[in-house]
Design goal:
By secondary structure, this protein is mainly alpha-helical. The chain has a domain at 37-119. The protein is 61% helix and 7% strand. A two-stranded antiparallel ribbon has the order 1-2. Helix 1 (32-59) crosses helix 4 (89-119) and helix 3 (77-84) runs antiparallel to helix 4. The longest helix is centred in the last third of the chain and has 31 residues, at 89-119.
């Protein structure tokens, strides 16, 4: 019979106290920064323009929204700052990679759909 000490748990035959987390999942893991940067860039590319347009449309008239929508390009300061700072450069590069990959996929799929729709008509 296994007797547990207070504040300890047995997982897979290893004793781990509450204060000690798993050693394989922490921010220094070599895959954490690339994955979080890539998917943050992906989400940033999709969410920021949509949220910006939705907020503008809920408070302003349609002609004003179309005039002000290019202001969303100010959000491009975020990846520039991430790449410029030494502490966040690696995250920023993967962030930019996620943004570019998302833009390429969206533009590529859009172009393919337009080509298919116009060639079959």
């Amino acid at each position: 019979m296994i007797q547990l000490r207070p504040n300890t748990a047995v997982e897979g035959g290893m004793d781990m106290s509450e204060n000690d987390g798993p050693d394989w999942w922490h921010r220094d893991h070599p895959v954490f920064t690339p994955l979080s940067g890539f998917f943050s860039g992906l989400a940033f590319t999709l969410v920021v323009p949509g949220l910006f347009a939705a907020l503008l449309e809920s408070f302003l008239a349609q002609h004003t929204v179309t005039d002000l929508f290019p202001v969303v390009l100010v959000a491009l300061v975020v990846p520039i700052v991430l790449v410029a700072r030494r502490q966040s450069r690696r995250f920023g590069l993967y962030f930019v990679l996620g943004m570019v990959a998302t833009a390429l996929v969206v533009v590529g799929v859009g172009a393919l759909v337009v080509w298919i729709l116009t060639s079959t008509a």
